[in-house]
Amino acid sequence: MDTTYSASSHREGTAVSARGLRKSYGSTTAVDGIDLDISAGEVFALLGPNGAGKSTAVEILEGFRHRDAGEVHVLGADPGTAGRSWRARIGIVWQHRVEGSPLTPLDVVRHFAGYYPESWAPEEVLERVGLGDKARARVRSLSGGQSRRLDVALGIVGRPELLFLDEPTTGFDPEARRRFWTLIRDLAGEGTTIVLTTHYLDEAEALADRVAVISKGRIVARGTPATLGGRAEALATVSWTDDGHRQQIRTAEPTRVVAELMPTFPGEIPELSVHRPTLEETYLRLIEEPGADAQESPAESREELPT
Ligand SMILES: Nc1ncnc2c1ncn2[C@@H]1O[C@H](COP(=O)(O)OP(=O)(O)OP(=O)(O)O)[C@@H](O)[C@H]1O
């Protein structure tokens, strides 16, 4: 079985397009008019608090949930009506992991591989997710993080054009997460479109070309991790200690502020730090303050912090 992608596997066009997507469960509106465009080959992350509507939106895109309204095209088809050949082009790593089984990871991956016209070699896919040495162990003997890696193996074994990952690294140790990120980057480099939901902002920052923040069923901000919510233009905070008192200046020009401070100290500026909003801080502001997507006006302000 061929286990390499050809250059022609780099894809062009739109992988996912949704307009006015809506879904309610009884009186709960889970998805309240979402528009999405995800390009082929893109890594796109959906962020949002618990219950924001991410899984519902993604399950509609996967064809596992009916929408109440809206237009959706995924790999050129309506997921509500698309057939088996369309499904074979899609990989899914569900939020909840598959329960333990008396089979081995190799048995399970082999079984799943049989459903796809063009699958990875099962041994290779287990190597790629870091389960090579557990290929012949019992699935029920795997740790939580190892089981999750098996879920990822099952999601990618069919060499999907589009891979949905719902909170894929929950339970991974830090080294396994880094390894998983490398795998995702490799898959993206080979042309796979990836739609990721995650609560780990560092994961979104490390992997995503673009992110969208969902809150209460609506997209409240979208952009690259670096520019989301006006992050690129946000003021920096320069902090230091002067005569035992913590000082800070919020400024659009931290280099100038530090240069002006330098001559006022004989040597090092005590406890100097320059901080710009992290993706996590930006995200928290976006979901806490309605309309916070507007950019801040770059006015400089100085204050002394209470000790
Ligand atoms: N099958 C269901 N029946 C009734 N309500 C549901 C169902 N699935 C989801 N909901 C509700 O819809 C809303 C959105 O849930 P959803 O699972 O899409 O959110 P989420 O953003 O994926 O959350 P999480 O980060 O916790 O996974 C929530 O209020 C949830 O309780």
Question: Counting H and I runs of at least 4 residues, what is the number of helices?
Answer: 9
Bound molecules: adenosine-5'-triphosphate
* Order of the strands making up the biggest sheet: 5-6-7-3-8-9
Which stretches are low in confidence, meaning pLDDT under 50 for 5 or more residues running? 1-10
Q: How many beta-strand elements? A: 13
Tally of discrete structural domains: 2
Oligomer: single chain
Q: Helicity range of the residues?
A: 25-40%
Measured on Cα atoms, how large is the radius of gyration? 23 Å
Task: Offer a concise description of the structure.
The protein is an alpha/beta fold and 307 residues long. It has 2 domains: 10-228, Rossmann fold; 229-304, no CATH class.
Features:
disordered N terminus, 307 residues, alpha/beta, Rossmann fold, 13 strands, six-stranded mixed β-sheet, binds adenosine-5'-triphosphate, four-stranded antiparallel β-sheet
Structure description:
By secondary structure, the protein is α/β, with parallel strands linked by helices. It has two domains: 10-228, 3-Layer(aba) Sandwich (Rossmann fold); 229-304, no CATH class. The chain contains nine helices and 13 strands. The strands form three sheets. A six-stranded mixed sheet has the order 5-6-7-3-8-9, sandwiched between helices. The protein has a four-stranded antiparallel sheet with strand order 12-10-11-13, with helices on one face. Strands 2-1-4 form a three-stranded antiparallel sheet, with helices on one face. Strand 6, helix 6 and strand 7 (193-197) form a beta-alpha-beta unit. Helix 3 (105-113) packs across helix 4 (122-128). It starts with 13 loop residues before the first strand and ends with a strand. The model is unreliable at 1-10 (pLDDT under 50). The site of adenosine-5'-triphosphate has 11 residues, from strand 2 and helix 1. GO terms for molecular function: ATP binding; ATP hydrolysis activity. It holds the Pfam family ABC_tran. Keywords: Antibiotic resistance, ATP-binding, Cell membrane, Membrane, Nucleotide-binding, Translocase, Transport. InterPro entries: AAA+_ATPase (IPR003593), ABC_transporter-like_ATP-bd (IPR003439), ABC_transporter-like_CS (IPR017871), ABC_transporter_ATP-binding (IPR050763), P-loop_NTPase (IPR027417).
